[in-house]
Queue: 4 jobs
Job 1
Amino acid sequence: MQPFTALVSRTVVLPGANIDTDQIIPARFLTTTTRAGLGEHLFADWRYDASGAALAEFALNGEPARGCRILVAGRNFGCGSSREHAPWALLDYGFRAVISTEIADIFRSNALKNGLLPVVVDEATSRWLIAHPGVEVRLDVAARTLTLPSGAAVGFPLEPFAQHCLLEGVDELGFLLARSAEIEAYERRS
Amino acid sequence: MAYAPQTLLDKIWRRHEVSPESAATPAVLYIDLHLIHEVTSPQAFALLRERALRVRRPERTLATMDHSTPTLTAQVFGGAPIAIESAARQVRELEANCAHFDVELLGLTHGERGIVHVIGPELGLTQPGKTIVCGDSHTSTHGALGALAFGIGTTEVAHVLATQCLLQRKPRALAVNVTGALAAGVTAKDLILAIIGELGVSGGTGHVIEYRGETIRALDMEERMTVCNMSIEAGARAGMIAPDETTFAYLAGRPRAPQGAEWERALQAWRALPTDADASFEREASIDAGAVEPMITYGTNPGMVVPIGANIPQRPGDEIFGRALAYMGLTPGEPIRDQPVNVVFLGSCTNARLSDLRSAARVLRGRHIAPGLKMLVVPGSQQVKRAAEAEGLDRVFLDAGAEWRESGCSMCLGMNGDVVGRGEYAVSTSNRNFEGRQGTGARTLLASPLTAAASAVRGRVTDPRELI
């Protein structure tokens, strides 16, 4: 994994609450055996009409969304299934961070393992970000802060080990494999 | 060290710590049983190949096929090719991966194949006190037997394959205390829908739910599985119920449960698992089961749920609510009852066990589904299918005009081509009513097998108490 220290980007906003993993990547696109190319199907049922044409009113299809690497979404983003295809699709599309007031457990865990930063902020910050799509913000992983255009920095929680993995580009599998002596000892005693 | 009272979660967690968590690192948690399927495992095996790793303990992993597999008999047993080529490729890839990595596979034509969360308990593999994971969020189902069971992503599937461990922070414990008796016509599905309505779809985030109280104790094992299955719909990664005589009676004699002297030893250990009387939970909630009615969802998440006789709520000014109702084509303030229905789906890891099929058959026996309505009955496993056929339930469904299929996830998530059409209404015994869940533009109303069957007979949303 590439180290992730900081990110500066404009935002794209999906204000809905409870955006579930079936919206992020509908199940019919999960009959794949690789993780490549899922960005094309990101939010497929919101992004395209029945004929496959892009819907102009959907935020990701607008010109201002081009190049945005931060998604701002309503409360409880990523609820639903455990499909890691959801963060894979967001990353493949170009996102590196998601900001919400609440992020579902399995999605958050999957996101972190792929270098997609889940950022949980307070209601007021979220309301402001949702009301101001396209603003440029800065995310600092070491300081665990989101810096708004005003210069105000808002803190966000980040589990220390996940933070370490992001900053150093460490992957958890390597960490676990290095514990094999302890795992063997556990297997012997249980 | 002084005696500290422990919850069921505490006890299972502590026994599986290869190393405990610290401020800097999560716990290394040992996994007893890993269930895998064709959709969320290919990229995990690819990771193992990339790094030239083996499966550390192949005997602790069991593979099956359920999510994208066909339910039409000819496609399952080779009389016809699997209609979706990419799904066929997933089946072949799982076969190849299991052969290469020496993992046991209950493949497409195996008599013990089925939905992963149906076959674990059915085979007796799911046991009290175990840690169980699977690349599927409804892994919470297995908690019904007093296991700590939760869904994981594909990267974590690779972690478990390679190390038999996961890095985890201990979740908080949430007690849901349920008292009072369920009324006639009110099922475990109605109870869990009412609980989700109460907690909200993110009310359990960061928590493991332990369902407790006299009502839970009175549920049979399959009802308990229905309850634990939907824990994730309240945001909780796991739901669990303390093992008791009901659990032990269910497991006794199952092929992969401990036998003989081992069974006696296991029983002794299992009896020590329930939460200590003086243990405390980080949070508690209470539900009066006596007040629960048959429940049905009207919106686009499982928390948007009402008693079947109630009107759809009104939330003027709530744009998100308005958008959900517009998707559903339903009007706030109107009754949900008598809403016309196009499709009824009886199936899924929530409600496709033998007792669920019996419950629906009770309504359908001697009746016919409404003209123009499509009803799909998909048993949870091949064993459930055979057991249902042995008591003639297949005839009840077929005579009523429903389709009787091979087991799998099927129309719960519509990956295999079993889908609800755009704009159509489905009363479904599954677990998610998200937009497009059962097919692009499909409108899902979640309910119990009784309500689904009654609605199939009338062709509109029907209180099952009118037909039983």
Job 2
Amino acid sequence: MRCAYACGSNDHRLARRDFLGGLGGLGTLAGLGLVTGDLFAFLRPAAAKQMAAEQKRVLVINMHGGLSQLESWDPKPGTPTGGPFRSIPTSVPGTHISELLPKTAGVMHHLSLIRGLNTSEDDHGKGAYLMLHGRRQSPANDIPEIGAVMARTLESSDGNGLPGHIKITAGGGGGRGNDAAYLGPRYASISLGNGNPPQYATRPDDLSAEQDARRQNLRRLANERFLSRRRTAMTDAYTYTFEQALRLMEQRSVFDLSKEPEQDHARYGAHDFGRHCLLARRLLENGITFVQVSHSNYDTHNENFQFHLEQMGEFDGPFATLIQDLVDRGLFDSTLVIVLSEFGRTPGINQLYGRDHWSKAWSVCVGGAGVQRGAVLGKTNEHGTEVIEGQVDHGNLFHTYLSAVGLDSTESFDIGGRPVPLADPASKPIREILA
Amino acid sequence: MDGRYGRWTVAIRAAVLGVMGLGLGAGRAEEPLHIRIDRIMDAAMVGGPMGQASDSEFLRRVCLDLTGRIPPVGDVRAFLADPDPEKRVKWIDRLLDAPEFVRHMATSFDVMWMERRVDKHVPGAEWRQYLHASFAADKPLSELAREILSADGADPARRPAAKFFLDRDADPDLLTRDVGRLFFGVDLQCAQCHDHPLIDDYHQRDYHGLLAYVNRSVLFLDPKDNNKALLGEKAEGETAFTSVFTKESGSTGPRLPTAEEVEDPVLAAEDAYLVKPGKDVRPVARYSRRARLGEEIARGDNRAFNANLANRLWALVMGRGLVDPPDLTHLENPPANAILLDELARDLASRGFRSRAFLRELVLTRAYQRSLSAPTDWRPVVDTASAALIELEAAYQASDGERHAARAALDKESARRAEREASVATLRMAVRRCESARAEADRASRDAAAAVAPVAAELANRRADMEAVASAADATAKAITALQTETELADAASRIQAVRDKLTAAMGPLEARVAGLTATRESAAASLAAFDRALDAARQALAAAVAPFAAADSACTGAEARFRDAERRWMVARRKRDDAKLAAEWKTILDQGPGGAEKPLFDERLARLEERWTRQSALAPLKPLTPEQLGWSILTLSGAVDRHRREAERERKQRTDAPSDPAELAREIEKSIFAKLEGDLAEFVRLFGAGPGQPQQTFFATVDQALFLDNGGAIRAWLAPADGSVTARMLAIEDPSGVADELYLSVLSRAPSDAESAAVREALAAAPDQKAVIVQELAWALVASTEFRFAP
């Protein structure tokens, strides 16, 4: 039984100093994660301050159900496990990927592949958990998802009024997710269904802008009077959210996909995934820190090849377009892109022409901020049944993501006086893939 | 200090502690707790309190803290108009008798213990009903805790109590963490794999001691009853651990924080189970460690349990625990006032863990009724405090000396105790040796007796034979003498003689054997008697040594108590000294003028100063409303609470079976209102509540909360001028000053200042034809203001 909290003794010593230093009386305020100027800036990890210099963003594309590495990033054509599809050359000499991704092949020189992934977890829920949290699930130890970690650590100090952690979902939208654990609801995801703005972001019809402005002024006046009696970090945080809300309402068009030009809609495609990628581009361009897009359904226990033909076909165009757009618009170097899944699929093909769950040897695709271009790390054997070179796991990936956006992945959060490591202290980044 | 006591002396210690605890509790009962609290608080203050809350500030605060909502405007007017100088006490008692108090307690403890986890095995409604019934009956909190920690969910009547364990899937690590945090105020999570790297007081042994109470419990899904979840418990499973750092390992039986390890009863393997484990069978151990956990708590002498409970009740009304966060009790995170926390814990135990009476005392204190206004001029406070620095430094040094002396005395007593314990142990060993030697002699003696018996019996048989033969021979001899010529008879006589001779010859050795065995038996008996005497002597020696040991033990307990007292005084002295130091720093800043320091530094130090004086209870803390308090307050403003009350009252009047007891009627009406409006709270909980399983007392502010207040349809509807809402009442008032009064008394429970009243009049005058719109804007602005969000 490992303790997932703290095991690197050096960290402990460092954190102890911070911890004792924080006990001067402000320890309990540290958990507020305030962005009210410099007042409490000293309580945040030092690295976060460095980050303010260059705003970084993260895009995660989550391939729900378990993307087949053999029909995507690590094809084995002509072998008993390879299936019917060929592999094709990419824009990186010597690197081949599945013929199902022709457009992606054209942007491979921007991306890198990690082909030596072994996560030893074949359960959908647990696999998805460890890929998004960088650690195994443990009931006694609730930890934040990657989006919450990024939203907190990459938060710009000026604050643009927009939420930092967004998940684009197929429908509905607006609600706050439960994925920030000890970082608090401030960093929990806001889900957006198909370009619906966040919940309650629209002023009621019977309330004119003029009336709203008037009542907001009355509210500010009331606050002024009260804050002259007592003003604390909590009151600052609370009043700030109202100003944030007003800015968000002004910027509601950030979530409005119809504001994107017609030809871009055409380039990305009319289907959900295409529109979600376009929305992701719009959000990232508008300074939102973390965006997660999902694509389903990859759980192909039968008709693996038919399904991947369709799904990869849908994925390929919008994804390659998005990568190229981020590059063209100068955003790619500051945006970490991750294409992940909960696990890969079995090299063995079952009786129903399907592939089952397989976490022993699979791949993820990364690119953008802090990551090498056109690299391939790790190798599976001839039939793709085992990693034979450069084996890594979810813990290494999580450290790598944090390092790629310029954070020291061995740092700790200060949670109400408790130092809590950003990533599993027993793991470390994949240095070879970092730029 | 935990290894200091041998396991077998635990019973003696428990008895001694129990007696002491009761004695101390009873001895201090002469003065009401609220007086004692204020005395302890005043003594710990540097620079004096900042002023007391006004009547309106007090009423709003006490209503939110005891009934979970702002006071209805009628109550505000009535309270402010009440000339009774004792009206605060009167209203406190009134609020404590209100059914809303029970509801608020049930909600607060639900949120505290379940932390808004999503329902899993036990429906939340049943659990909350169980808590509600418990608080309605003013059940001792120790008893409530015992029920929750020992229920297995099998008894339908007590099933809701099992939610704490069942809804955590009986996961032993999660339970250890949550039982530690929520019932003992220690978060031992990091001590799972090694002694805590940051907290010297948290040891791996503590974690595993607590784990031992819960790790035999298993979640059982009953296949015969729709996979209904129940708790089973195994009779085996020990906790052993190895540090991931030092590789040191150990093992421990069940042990609560700050207590001794308990000894499990020894049961034969065949007696270990009431129901043996098996496929599709819920194991039930004869001895339940979980039940033992409940018993250990309910006894009421566990320091950590009592302090945690007192601290959490304090936090419930005072806004923040003396230990904060409440689950991080340790030396480096000292309580705001260690002496007070000790007093509260002791008092709570001595009043039988009755929360209602305890909370009554807390809200009666002057410390509770402090004003929240920070001083506009800190100079007098800072001057007084920094002037006292030298004195406080000296007092701190003195307390440090006393603490060291107490520590040394404790070490000395502890050594003496150990010495006596060793001698008792030696004597105890001697008794054991005598006992086994005596048992050996006893066995030998019984063996010897057993060996003699059959030989003696044989000898007796032979003697009987011999006598028979002898009498036959005598008879024959007489016959021969009479007849003389009968040669056959003479032959017979000689044959008899031969038999007789043979028998006589055989009897000799037999007699010798019996004699020998008898001698052995006698010597064994003699030796047994000697061992008996030795054993008696050893027992007497042990008995003689136990008394001095008990004396040393109680001396040690006394020394420990004195050390703890000294330590608490030292903590308070240190805090006072540090506060004075900060004041001295601040004096320099003030002397330099506002431009003397950079603005952020100035603000940071001001925040720290204010925080310190709040921790001293010189200043009331700002208390953000819980989601439920916020929801009920807005529903109160909307008129919905009143409307449903009138409805329920009307309905009860028409019914013939309505209760005649007014208290009973009030409870029924509250239940009916709650049932109607409960659903409206969900959105407040979703937006203003922390995530499931996360500590719920941490404040946070998110943009979606502001958006909800800005644009939420429900908020718009509640503040619309209809159905007896605040805006409907404002709309019905002609006089603009009256409108202002109604607004402020309703929303903020206070009369408006002249400037505020003027601003309302101005707003109304600016758009005379839009009064309905303006009153909504005015009401919304106050609902969305910081004053509404943070209790006074």
Job 3
Amino acid sequence: MFLNHIYLIPLFPAFGAALMFFFGRRLQKSAVSGVCVGVVLIAFIFACFTVVQYTHLAHGTGQPFEKVLYTWLGSGGLDSGGPGLSFTKKDGSTAQFNADFGFLLDPLSAIWLLFVTGVGLLIHIYSIGYMAHEGGYYRFFGYLNLFMFAMLTLVLANNYILLFVGWEGVGLCSYLLIGFYFHRKSASDAANKAFIVNRIGDAGFVLGALTLVWYFGSFRFTEINALARSGHYLVGDPILTIGAILLFVGATGKSAQIPLYIWLPDAMEGPTPVSALIHAATMVTAGVYMVARSNAVFVLAPTAMKIVAIIGALTALFAASIGLVQNDIKRVLAYSTVSQLGYMFLALGVGAFSAGVFHVFTHAFFKALLFLGSGSVIHAMSGEQDMKFMGDLRSRIPTTYKTMFVGMLAIAGIPGFAGFFSKDEILWQAWSSEGGAYRILWFIGIATALMTAFYMGRLIFLTFFGEPRMSPEVEHHIHESPKSMTGPLVILAACSVLAGFLGLPHSLGGSNRFGKFLEPVFAKEAHIFETEKPAQYAAGEKEEEKTDPMEYALMGLSFLVAVAGIGWAYRTYGRAEKGYCEPLAEKAPPLYTVLYNKWFVDEGYDYAFTGRRKIGDVRLGAMGAGEASSWFDAKIIDGAVNDAGWLTRAIATVSTWWDKWIIDGLGVNMPAILTRVMSYPARLFEWGLMQWYALVMIVGLIGFTLYYVWK
Amino acid sequence: MVPITTIHYLVVAAALFVLGVVGVLTRRNVVIVLMSIELILNAVNLNLVAFSRMWGNLYGQAFAIFIVVDAAAEAAVGLGILIAFFRNKETIHVDEIDLLKW
């Protein structure tokens, strides 16, 4: 009964958003918070019941539940029939172009559904306290509800087109919410940057989806998965590889990987609940969701998976290196998010899909916790975000301190907390996949883990320990946040501890319920792997086997790394005083400058693509190439055309001269002149004397006669 | 004495012919030129008659009659031209009649 009305789940927050759009201005703050938080609460409860009903229905078979409301593009329902938009597939057969308003619930979307609505609910509650003194209250909640609607559409969609509708919707809401304080130029610039960079990724996504529909003939996930797993298709097909890579380009835009991660740090211009919800827990995981949903396609394209893994690992390392030296508390968390997303893609790329999804799940909790905690800190510090001016807040805002400390332990990977189990699972899969082909990625992962532990420890110690480095007026106003803010923090902290045990691996005596729950979504590709690479297993199956002792060794190593990172951070920053200096800035200033300036990537993109930099009058980068081409066309190509015309006229002039003087002069007039000139001597013979003529005649006659006589 | 054969008549006719030609070419007076032309024609007549006598038929003599007629006509016309010219130029010297030149 709940399942049949699954379409209501996204519609509850949509209703809240619509209400805000039409009536929000006139409502009181309490009414706004009541409506908007209320609809999300209803959506969460509804989602819980729906998932429970689904698990009863599916009984572990993982059969997806699909409900199609209406076929939006093309004809008929799931069978083709009647006139419609038909097109030719790659193998020549015709197919119908179909996209419907359809909802799919299987273990993957069930997990996403639960944590999106759950974490979303907690953040809505938090925002009541955080935004209490801000203007535009109804607008904020309206946008948040609109975001929930778009995200739930994305998660519950049964085909790529409806997923894309949700995809664009969350991009729009990200733009609206980052630019919430639109009076600030930096905020509106950041919003533009986020949307534009996202759009670049979306181009890749659309091309990838179209490649898939050309190849498989359908947009629907169930149909594509069935076809991909049927064994008809060759592993490593180049078209599928390109399609999968294009889909991944979309994911790099939405989930902030190299090269399109640049919008996420700037997105911190938005209010902190926005950063928590959108840029930590939910929207940025949309890319991970999409790749996990397309796992059947990616499995058929091992090259694409390798690219996903490599980019994930590199992004993790790269972002962590930048996070080491940032001073703005939210910026450190932003780079941390990019880095952890890199871990998720690393997991997906090596074939450990459930490990990646597990990390998404745990990350949602502890990252939201860290962001909301930082929001609480900023609220206490009257808006100060720079860690250089914090310190010794331990005793003054104890709840925030305790919950953030839990969050830090979780993200660093201390056993017992959620992050350890999920991150360790990813590292183990990276070490052992394909008989150790990805070991170098494991190494990158463990180095990143060390850096993660270090910079998170740095964040906590600079903020809460040491000497107070803030100005006296700010120090005077420090106060703990209201219950509406600390409540969610506590709940999230509890989740950060408990969620990890859902995925407790076999090696530690658990049953990995999380992996088992997800098995049906991913395990079906096992038979493809067995024919190609016997050493590769889908996640979850590994735990059935005997536990490799290497796994314990690696677990111990990651624990050591985490402790080492936190310990080193404590030694460096635990007692930071007013004028503390970064050790890296002292020992290696050039490296510090590069890291602090984010490896100058933004400047690099500015030079290469935006076309705002000039040398003299010449524009640089891709736009400069465009300008150069346009100059080339106008001056050189058109110039050639003009010169050809000039040349034709010159030749015509020469031709005219030639005709007038040479042909007419020499050819025609010359014989006449010659004749005239020659006539002058000839005239001399004509004297007019008759007897002379007669004499000439006689002489000739005699000559003839003599000639004939002598003959 | 040598018997008089045809050749003697031919030689005489040739001599008369040469005299007539020289006269046409060298004499200044137009009337004398006309008379020399008569001399040429008559020399030809003599030649023809001599050959007629030699061959024993009358072809030569018949043609000679034609030439006589022709000579008469020609003399008349020639004198007519001379008189017409004399009316224009008042002279009978050949070398002064040179209008047809450049």
Job 4
Amino acid sequence: MKNKTRHDSPLCLALKGLRQNRLAMIACGVLLMLYLGAIFAGFLSPYSYRDEDRNFSYCPPTPVRIFDGQGRLRWPFVYGREMSFDAQHKRIYEIKEQERYPLRLFVRGEPYRILGLVPCSRHLFGVDSPGRIYLWGSDSRGRDLFSRILYGARISLSIGLLGVMISFSIGLLVGGIAGFYGGRIDNILMRVCEMFMMVPGFYLLLALRSVVPPDFNSVQVYFSIVVILSFIGWAGLARIIRGMCLSLRQREFVLAARAMGLSDLEVIVKHILPHTVSYSIIAIMLSIPGYILAESALSLIGLGIQDPFASWGNLLSEAMGIVQITFAPWILLPGMFILVTVMCFNILGDALRDWLDPTLKMERQS
Amino acid sequence: MFRYCLKRLLISIPLLLGMALLTFLLMQKTTGSFYDQLKMDPLISPETIDRYIRLYQLDKPLLTQFLLWVRNLFRLEFGYSFYYNVPVVKIIAGRLGNTFILSFASFLLTWLVAIPLGICAALHRNRMIDRVIQMLSYVGLSTPSFLSAMLLLYLASRTGLLPLGGMHSARYEDMTALGRFLDLLRHLAIPAAALSIRSVGALQRIMRGNMLETLRQQYVLTARAKGLPESRVVYVHALRNAINPLITLLGYEFSALLSGAALVEIICNWPGLGTLMLTAVRSKDIYLVMASFMMGGVLFLVGNLFADILLARLDPRIRYEK
């Protein structure tokens, strides 16, 4: 009985809607895997992000084999490899059939911390040195791309969430205040918004990034990028929230709340903004890709996350030269991860919009 | 309408100046300047550097410097580039032209591909071909332009069909006019396609939606009922009305392209505004940064204004004045 009269919260509705959309469920699953991969990067990756071996520069992916040279079935292993240069100074990797490195599970390797707390040195898989396993190839310094993509996911995936959180707090607050008070405050705030929206995003990004001192350490750079991205992103949202608030502030429940003596800020945060939640959820989903892309773009041109730290954009910056793309196409892999992540967020956002926004849905059906 | 445009333009002036002040302070307040790098060079005497700093009035207080810059702005002088040692206008003009060529090409490509795709998808709604197009445009929509540029470059390097970056071949000077044009087209192909992939996905979806909606209208039914051939119904009666709202997107799209082209320019080595901005920001060439920043802003504004005017022209329901 109780359940029947209960009103579902927008989040609840969203989850219900998602369950009916197969594509969105797949996207959800993929994202979950990516985020889990990022969280447990230390355990899943055979090497740390800065573990390099210059003898294996641009080593192509090493396939894991189960048949040896004589065609006998073996425990999965990889062959040893040796690098040499041909007449055109092109790297060639020769497989040494006599060197076999069996795949070992739960091997001891470089120490790391699970969830940043529990120290541990076991890795899911690995091979005995001097052999090295490069599932997805290696970069110019012989660092394992698979490990670096996992570690890079930490930065690339978290920057979207953090950035969205900051810019949405600003956007909601500014939009709420402008819409609630109207008049001159509204006018000034909206002009400021326009100023931010008017300037081409990428140029603004460049200009702002030039502000960050070059001697920042990586954590500081990371946070300054988050701040820069949210600094650019809040204006569009603020305008839309303001429009919603303008109509909401005339409603009875707002009057009631004010009559009860709540402060203006309390009315805005507790009574008006909750009404914009379903729109905000959609907007959040659809704007996360923007943050991921912007971070990648910055790191790609060398203004974002710096080596040896990895982010997907930073990893992709090795692919800036045509020579590298031609001879080591596997360094484009981080780009594929960006693509898949962006696509998943887009699919999720679309599915949520279909579900939460009944007007759009009716338009589609009619 | 004229008054509305005037008002929009007048409002944008303080906005632009505010943005410029912000950029200026940000660039100046941070550690290091262009001349710090030169000071390390033993070949350049400190006196020379001092002379330049005085020449460009970099020793004055910040606000004075900015006001000087604004004053010069109204005299249509945009300052000197420290790096190239010529007026910034000269550098930007050339680069802007290149960015314009690239944006225009990609714009043309987007529309030529997206519109037929959208129509095709709408006519075969929910059939195999529609599904394939929708899936592809989802992928296209999610592909960042820098990734498509890299993938296309990889393909080009594998097949050897297209030049890998740059704008002209080495033998450009010896070519005939037609040869030059073809050479430019060949160089344009990769960056333009890379820029288009994303917008084709978006535009195709809008076109499909519009077309589906128009096909449901009563006048389409009338046209069919009076026995017009299907091709005439679709391409004359429905298409015209479906494409109308899209035209208003034109201006917005173009201004977005101008700023979106920067990354692809950098990857494909296209000598445009984006590449210029990047080097200018890196070397702290303040006036060059400010001027290209202003240029980008103005173009963006004009594009948006143009779009709004077009919108009002085409749609009588929209009025900007009371």
